[in-house]
């Protein structure tokens, strides 16, 4: 017995390679067994066929010419089989060109009249003509004359189990111990004998013909398993299909339409090639994606076998050779061992798979290269064992590792109970901690939900409470702006008030926009914009504030900046206002500069449309306090202010955060550069598209009256705030509408039933009964369904708009609103049109014409008491009482209503006093 120190290394080596020693022989043995019973035979054939189809194309064999007989030729000849006279004529024409040999691959065992005698004469006079017979299976006799002359060969082909021809039969030995040659062998020998090359025997079974040594096929050669190897067979090394040989039709031969020297010293094969003849076979080239494989005529297969024999004998073209069976078995064992070793070397699966893949690709390429050099090496078993051994050995290693793991688990189980107890105590402690965390998270969630609800309620309430007075401020400034009697200075003051109100509204919208940003609901609303006008408007907004602080406000727009662009004008305006407001706010001396330029090559010529996107660059530079470096990173966060901003106690901390979101949504970026004590430069870019000036929306003209012949529409205004009702009444009556008012939903319903208005402007939040309830009640009646109800709301939240739709509102208008927007909304639903300021015949001119043409006869339609009340109201300048009296005028007197209304609005109490006094005196 060997001592233990010597045994241990050997035991370790055996243990390390145990998987390889078990796996490699086992997988190899299974593969050899499977190969021996023919499991891989079809795969090997398919691989061989693929090699034939994929190898480089070979040149045409100039030594062989095929005379084809197809359906067209039979149609020209008029009969099949071809009459003996026609065949004799064709053979005469062929013989005249002195070919080396002629192979007639058409059975002629029976005469086909007319012309049989002529054909026999041609047979006898053509010693290099070889006819065919069939000797395997159902025999077909040769032509008797050729048989007597010994000019006969067999035309039988060998078919594999899948019906394809991959082997060539060179000779057979018949029962009477007579050896017969195939057509291809006979013609090849005739050609080579003329070249001085004869057939010689080397070893038993091996034949040498010129440079080639032919070895007979055996049943297990290559991918074959127990194939029939009777006769002298060789593996066919195809040159190709019909296109690898010269072809002429028998019709051309009969008409003598062939080149004079085409056939001289060549082998001529005559055979049927048409699809309707029973002489078509499958070959390695036969494949079709549509399910019908293309077949090859037998005469072309004979031509390939002749070409193979001649090329091998004369040029040394490779014949297909195979390995002996023992070498194939050792080859399979070698690759089985390689696969098992790879699985042992690489513990990671991905390395094993990669190595197997690379080896498989290399092995497949090697088989193909070997085929190109004349060797057919069966590759399927070796590839399968390479993969199979790797997989099985990997599994073996996994099982071994599993056994090792089980052994370790058994070792751990000895102390497992104590560890489990310790772990249980720890888990219980963690469980208590998790439960406590869950309770705290639930509380935090409740707080977050409550905070979110409070935020929503706050936003809704803030929106309503701030927008409502803003509605009055902006609305009355618009009304005052309509007064032509105001001086230019007062008009300018009103414009400043209006722009300041709009700026205040934008601050309110900041909070709402930030809420939308947090919810991911921010949308880009692009439209046509006059950029120069926008910049001028923003400059007017800040001019007074800058002058009051002694700052120089400079707006520099480069010449190549397009005036008319397509972008979201509201968001661009808000960005500029936010940045300029901050610069002016935190700058005590010096200047604030806005510089605008373009980064693209868009033309500044506004007469041409530039469809190409442009990048506009805006720089807001100031000489203010500056921003500390540590504050820049958090500058664009919501509700975050710089130290200077906190000291000023101004702003919400939202402006820059919203500006950043707007800029990014508009396809740009925003950045900041700042030095404390020297100033700050904010730079942002946006993507815009240039537009024609004609595409831009022009400022809407001011509507001053209803168009002539417009019916008197009744309008009901419902709002709990007096100033809001007064604003709408003044505006609508000045246009020519008949207006009544209500302060809550309950009053609105009562007035609606008697007044029957065409349209109701309905506020939402009101005491006694809100707008939702009043709208539902009105819309629930048949009469109310035809009444247009439009909500007037100060809320901008989406869920409240959904409530409006459910309540039955036809539309909504957000406070504060512009008068043009309100009038356009009415025109949309009532299908009316207006007279606008600046038209050829303005409404003011029409009004003057109306009340200048007004006479006491026009007032006679009213009672004397009514005229007296009108006189008293005009005398005391009570325009409210005058409007109440106008409401009593019948609706048919439209001109009278409009004339008196215009006199009241223009404060022409003198005209009213004069007219009414004349009528009273009469």
Automatic annotation (TrEMBL):
Which controlled-vocabulary keywords does the entry list?
A: ATP-binding, Coiled coil, Kinase, Membrane, Nucleotide-binding, Phosphoprotein, Transferase, Transmembrane, Transmembrane helix, Two-component regulatory system
Q: Which organism is it from?
A: Aerosakkonema funiforme FACHB-1375
Lineage, top ranks? Bacteria, Bacillati, Cyanobacteriota, Cyanophyceae, Oscillatoriophycideae
Spell out the coiled coil positions from the record.
413-447
The entry's family comment says: In the N-terminal section; belongs to the phytochrome family.
**Domain Response regulatory spans what residues?**
714-830
Q: Where in the cell is it found?
A: Membrane
**Annotated PROSITE patterns:** HIS_KIN (PS50109), RESPONSE_REGULATORY (PS50110)
Q: Which GO terms describe its cellular component?
A: membrane
Which EC number(s) does UniProt give? 2.7.13.3
Entry's Gene Ontology molecular function annotations: ATP binding; phosphorelay sensor kinase activity
Q: Taking every annotated instance into account, which residue ranges of this chain make up the domain Histidine kinase? A: 461-690
The residues that cross the membrane are 20-43, 330-348, 355-376
Q: What is this protein called?
A: Circadian input-output histidine kinase CikA
Give the reactions, separated by semicolons, that this protein catalyses. Answer: ATP + protein L-histidine = ADP + protein N-phospho-L-histidine
Positions modified as 4-aspartylphosphate? 763
